Amino acid sequence: MYTFTSKQRFLAPRYSLAVLVPLTITTLWLAFQMIPGLGTFLGRSLPTLSFDPSLTHIMLLKTIALTQFSWLVFYYVNTKAMLYKFAIAILISGFFQALYASWLNLNVGMATPIFYIPYSKEAVGSFIYKNQLANYLALCLSIGIGVLISQLSLKEGGHQVRHKIRDFSMVLLSPKMLIRISLIIMIIALILTRSRMGNSAFFLALAAVSIFSYFFYNRKPKNLRLLILSFFILDFILVGAIFGVEKVKQRLLETSLASETRDEVIRDSIPMILDYPVFGTGGGSFYSSFSQYQAQPYSGFYDHAHNDYIQFSAELGLPITFLLGAMVLYCLFVALKTLVKRKTALYQGVSFGCAAAIIHMLLHSTVDFSLQSPAIALLFISILSLTLIASNLKKESNRV
User: Fold this and answer.
1) I want to staple 152 with a disulfide (CB 3.0 to 4.6 A). Which of 118, 168, 219, 221 is the partner?
2) How far apart, in whole angstroms, are the C-alpha atoms of residue 52 and residue 265?
């Protein structure tokens, strides 16, 4: 109804095709894997290409939902104000998740108030798995940092004492202080997860985008370097020392291939890809298919590959995996290009956050299965959509 009353065109903008087309092709591919008779035709023992059509059907429904949500983001986030509100919504979601996770973790012995999940030494929030909370917080943190960067001043302040007092008062009374406090709380929760790759990938991604911005950021804000340094010195070192960042470092030092079985899962998953490199074993079928390739029992049951690259390749085949990978890398390229080419502070700041979030996901996906979580997948698709919106919004908004 809104579309007809506002006389807004029904179709999403043209630049959205870079995300919508790969997601649509993936949706059609999942449906293709469920067509009866194709498996028998290609010499498989089952009538469908998928080894587990019921799980493929679930993944199909999830992919349809992700595609539709991405379309809604492109359709409604069509102004600068809407872009800011959407980025703030992501920040708020991470803030409340961090508050909830920290509250549960600091109340030793307390079960979750809704599902009565037993207390865990690592913060999990509303997730079951600590690494998924770490991934979710890292994505929200990245966008929040981008929003904060967009609000930094481009002009030098006065050197007189009254000018400095005025500038300091304006910072305290501005939304920047609330955003900064929210980011500190999210970093506390991230550290409390004790996630090795969650913490490492976030700070590596932030460092990589910061170094790139130092050399190529168009019209750098005057306090950009100080802000980035504050995250490493104030948040990671000082705040981290209070909330146990040493435990994260200890887990990193104690990590070895001998004590981990994830590398063995990856090793045993590669034959799945080699046997079905084009059509895959079916979306979501790793849960039931991997047992046929597992050479020996592990310390626990693995229903995911703990590597999104391996799992997507095994389930969907290499062509679709490369297509989705190209979509992600293209969005990263667009985000970095926006930092270099555009002059609008909000678009540049959001692109900074999106670039950090994408690099974080690329790193974290090497050791985990975060994209198998609907909440994280939805958030990541939103971030990919934001990269294209921040890059193209000005010229497209004139035609909406």
Assistant:
1) 221
2) 20
CB 396 within 8 A of CB 16: no
Question: Which amino acid, one-letter code, is at 382?
Answer: S
Angle between helices 17-33 and 53-76 (to 10 degrees): 160
Q: What is the DSSP letter of 46?
A: S
The per-residue b/e assignment along 369-395, b for 16 or more CB within 10 angstroms, e otherwise, is bbbbbebbbebbbbbbbbbbbbbbbee
268: helix, coil or strand? helix
Domain span holding position 67: 2-397
**392 in Cβ contact with 15 (< 8 Å):** yes
Q: Are 240 and 231 in contact (CB under 8 A)?
A: no
Our CA angle for 76, 77, 81, nearest 5°, is 125
CB 377 within 8 A of CB 62: yes
**Average pLDDT, stretch 251-265?**
56
The predicted pLDDT at position 359 comes to 97
Q: From its phi and psi, is residue 111 left (phi > 0), alpha (psi between -120 and 50) or beta?
A: beta
Q: Model confidence over 349-382: pLDDT tens digits?
A: 999 999 999 999 999 999 888 898 999 999 999 9
The pLDDT score that the predictor gives to residue 166 is 56
CB 213 within 8 A of CB 336: no
Q: Which residue type, as a one-letter code, is found at position 292?
A: Q
CA 277 – CA 270 distance, rounded (Å): 10
The residue written with tokens 């006065």 in the block is 158
Q: Quote the number of domains for the chain.
A: 1
